[in-house]
Design a protein that fits this description.
- The chain is mainly beta and 442 residues long.
- The strands form six sheets. The chain has a four-stranded antiparallel β-sheet, with no helix packed on it. Strands 2-7-4-5 form a four-stranded antiparallel β-sheet, with no helix packed on it.
- The longest helix has 18 residues.
- The protein is globular.
Length: 442
């Protein structure tokens, strides 16, 4: 039955049936600049339907702008977006950046002709609260943008640990230019970050980057992190790719003590690697509502190892990422990378907290049999769960890796966690230790 249905599937087709123009209500509105606010994922831009812009594809070399803040309680400094390209007539890239500034030399999403692809990004809002999209290809392309969260505007105090400082995207590393040779198979590349691309030379705990692989000689994956994978450790994937493909994905990566991030080429062939930075987080013990606590990436869930098995076609699955013991009460969201593996049909997935009806958005798109990874900041329920919808006509498995925790108002929720600790720092450390121990047992 699935074989008959697969030929009729267009990736993301079901996700595009319902459109909405309201950005929803934030779960919290922290007044501290640089802190994160969750929203129900909402579609802001769809060139096919004329949502947020004129109803027509974006022309080759063209730029469009759309309102990224309407309906948000604000003030909004930057937004977390999931960007989708549909029916591109040629190969190329999109650059998403603040309206009113010079377009940066960076790519948000790379694509090939006719292929639907998705990637996430963090971008400051520009003139009039708008965000611009540039089509760096030789053909037209349909563009979709969904908002998944936003950060409070204002001058970010360097003393606010875990607050994000969003910057216009900048290129940190491109192996095609320097050193001019691709990364070798099973080798880690160190990318200097501190003092580069608009990132200061100190007081930085982690960065938001877009990692792109291009011209890989073999299928495989890249792992971004603060250190090279250790022998015998459970590997995580920042992005997956096929031989010859160009793929990119957003990642939140903690820094090494020497001010670098590490990118591991987990394939049997050489690959060129490009790293663009979009923001950085202040160092120190986070305590503010909406602050992010970066962590060494770890695997939190893998449906391939669960008794429930793969997620059936066109159904949702509740996934337990944190223990249901009060741990999740001090977090409002998690920075995650969700990898779809072994899909039996082309399609898409949507990840959200499950507390509201299925949103008309998508976090990832994929082809039959092809692994695909996509990063996002997803709200977490008090019971430690998120919900994933399989928008395809075949079964699939998902793997969830966690790279950061977004705090809620600790003064309200610490007492509910059942953790008797003397300080915010110790409560936070205990909660993260519980989360990792729970993941290790599952």
């Amino acid at each position: 039955m699935f074989k008959k249905l697969m030929v009729t599937v267009t990736a993301l087709a079901a996700a595009m049936l319902t459109l909405t123009t309201t950005a929803g209500t934030a779960q919290a509105d922290p007044a501290i600049p640089g802190t994160y606010n969750t929203v129900r994922p909402t579609r802001l831009l769809d060139t096919r339907a004329g949502l947020g812009t004129t109803k027509m594809p974006l022309a080759a070399g063209g730029t469009l702008s759309f309102d990224a803040v309407s309906g948000l309680p604000g003030p909004v400094g930057s937004v977390a977006l999931t960007v989708t390209v549909v029916r591109p007539a040629g190969g190329g890239f999109l650059t998403v950046y603040p309206t009113g500034v010079t377009r940066p030399l960076a790519s948000t999403i790379n694509f090939v002709p006719t292929r639907t692809l998705v990637n996430s990004t963090v971008v400051p809002v520009g003139t009039g609260g708008n965000v611009s999209v540039y089509n760096g290809s030789n053909g037209t392309v349909e563009v979709i943008a969904d908002i998944t969260g936003w950060w409070t505007a204002g001058t970010v105090d360097p003393g606010t640990a875990g607050a994000v400082n969003t910057i216009s995207p900048a290129r940190l590393y491109d192996s095609r230019i320097s050193p001019g040779v691709p990364a070798r198979a099973r080798v880690t590349t160190k990318v200097p970050v501190l003092g580069h691309g608009g990132v200061p030379s100190s007081n930085v705990s982690a960065v938001v980057v877009n990692v792109t692989v291009t011209s890989p000689k073999a299928a495989g994956y890249l792992t971004g992190g603060s250190e090279a994978p250790q022998a015998g450790s459970l590997l995580t994937a920042t992005l997956s790719f096929q031989a010859g493909a160009t793929r990119g994905n957003m990642a939140v990566l903690p820094l090494n003590p020497d001010g670098t991030v590490a990118i591991y080429n987990g394939s049997s062939g050489t690959s060129h690697i490009v790293v663009d930075v979009m923001g950085y987080f202040n160092d120190g013990p986070p305590a503010a509502d909406g602050a992010l606590v970066p962590t060494t990436v770890y695997r939190a869930a893998d449906t391939r190892r669960e008794s429930a098995g793969p997620i059936p076609a066109l159904t949702t699955r509740t996934i337990q990422l944190l223990p249901n013991d009060g741990t999740a009460l001090i977090f409002k969201a998690l920075a995650v990378n969700i990898t779809v593996t072994r899909p039996q049909s082309a399609g898409f997935i949507t990840a959200w907290d499950g507390a509201t009806p299925l949103p008309p958005t998508a976090n990832n798109s994929f082809r039959f049999g092809e692994d695909a990874a996509s990063a996002t900041l997803v709200p977490i329920n008090p019971d430690g769960t998120i919900t994933v919808y399989n928008g395809s006509f075949g079964t699939l498995d998902v793997v969830v890796d966690v790279s950061g925790f977004v705090l809620t108002d600790l003064t309200l929720n610490v007492a509910k966690t059942g953790v008797a600790k003397a300080s915010t720092a110790s409560v936070l450390a205990d909660a993260i230790a519980r989360a990792k121990a729970f993941a290790a047992r599952h």
